[in-house]
Structure to design on (133 residues):
């Protein structure tokens, strides 16, 4: 069985699919349920994304509606569109509304030739080591 994320089974990740109640503040548990995101993930995102900054009163995190919408944007960028945290941070900072294409890791097949030679050398070393054992 492959390891990794579990498949989305009826999970609502899109902001369009969820109705945010008309309230002034939301506690972290409510945001967690609305966005289907664990509370510790929300706390981590607060440290990574400056745009996500809920108020703290009497030891409670209080999210405004704009914070909940930001959580949905972060989740979409990270999980649906595959951005890294840095890439998602940059997208939120730009606030352009459009998602720019991620640059490919390799420009063409010619760029992969050094990696192929390294892989070949590593396979040769592995073969030599397996013979000695």
């Amino acid at each position: 069985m492959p390891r990794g994320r579990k498949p989305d089974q009826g999970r609502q990740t899109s902001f369009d699919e969820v109705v945010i109640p008309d309230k002034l503040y939301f506690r972290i548990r409510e945001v967690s349920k609305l966005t289907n995101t664990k509370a510790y993930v929300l706390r981590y995102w607060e440290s990574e994304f400056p745009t996500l900054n809920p108020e703290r009163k009497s030891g409670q995190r209080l999210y405004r509606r704009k914070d909940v919408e930001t959580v949905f944007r972060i989740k979409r960028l990270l999980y649906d569109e595959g951005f890294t945290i840095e890439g998602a941070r940059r997208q939120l900072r730009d606030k352009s509304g459009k998602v720019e294409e991620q640059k490919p890791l390799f420009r063409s097949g010619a760029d992969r030739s050094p990696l192929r030679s390294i892989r070949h050398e590593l396979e040769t070393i592995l073969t030599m080591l397996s013979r000695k054992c």
Q: What stands out?
A: The first strand starts at residue 26 and ends at 27.
